[in-house]
Amino acid sequence: MTINKTLENGNVVFALNGKMDTWSAPELQEILIPAFDEVGSDGSVVLDFAKLSYISSAGLRVLFFGEKTAKEKNIPMKIINVSIEIKEILIMTGFMDILKVE
Question: How many domains, the chain?
């Protein structure tokens, strides 16, 4: 998986490309959690799944820790451009109930 991190209007945006699996998920976690300290006063952390083709349980774990950090720091985390396949995984695992998916 490749991760492209940008700052846009006070938001930290991560554009993910490829598969979020056992090998790539730790890399995302290493840069996702500190990103909550880089967000502007009205900003959020945004995960763009437009080019994400797969997510494993390791990837779901990273999303869980991201959401936990978001709540602790009172900074929104949202996921955008989710494919039908990934959305089905989020629904089946109950993650649609805890994540903000747009």
Answer: 1
